[in-house]
Write a structure and sequence with these properties.
two-stranded antiparallel sheet, 4% strand, 196 residues, 2 strands, elongated, mainly alpha
């Protein structure tokens, strides 16, 4: 174990855990969306800085663990240097974190505190959404079936009125078609925009 500050700072930077910002290639900027994506890029950059700072802090904590577990009088200076580096990194992380606006559900934090995988929260949310989607689809299908049955019964009882209703519905649908416009998104998808 080398107690020199240069090796300790380079190891803190690497720590086996940190990822450099240049390791992940950034997408080529789109000149048409430069103004709109500037706040998004800045937010991503701030978040990446916080992530790198967390990785560096984890590396420093590992080095502190190694230093403390094999502590001797000769390793007191490296221990103090690493403690100071940890405090300054935590301070820098706090300053960088103030620039980030990331909303994390409290349930995720509680799962992490309980030592569980936070992906369980995502899985539970998705399963809940699927269940609600199936319930909503069932209700929608029930209303469609009710509408169909009502129209059939009304057609038997009041055929002239039902024919007038169908004509009104078809003319209303035709009048909406010119009001709909196609809007091409930046990624090439087509979105139908209704103007009624």
């Amino acid at each position: 174990m080398d107690p020199s500050p240069q090796n300790s700072s380079s190891a803190a930077g690497n720590g086996g855990l940190s990822t450099s910002a240049s390791a992940t290639p950034s997408p080529a900027p789109n000149p048409t969306s430069a103004v709109a994506s500037a706040p998004v890029d800045e937010a991503k950059q701030n978040l990446n800085q916080v992530i790198n700072s967390i990785d560096k802090t984890l590396g420093l904590l590992h080095q502190l663990y190694v230093t403390v577990s094999s502590f001797s009088v000769a390793s007191q200076l490296p221990l103090l240097q690493r403690l100071n580096a940890l405090v300054s990194e935590l301070d820098a992380m706090q300053k960088m974190a103030d620039k980030c606006d990331v909303q994390i559900p409290l349930e995720v934090v509680n799962l992490i505190d309980d030592g569980k995988n936070p992906d369980e929260f995502t899985k539970d949310v998705i399963n809940s959404c699927v269940a609600k989607n199936q319930m909503t689809k069932g209700k929608t299908d029930a209303f469609k079936s009710l509408r169909k049955n009502l129209l059939e019964e009304l057609d038997h009882a009041f055929p002239d009125e039902v024919d007038m209703y169908r004509e009104i519905r078809s003319s209303a649908a035709e009048s909406r078609r010119p009001a709909q416009s196609l809007q091409t998104l930046q990624n090439g998808d087509v979105k139908i925009k209704s103007e009624y």
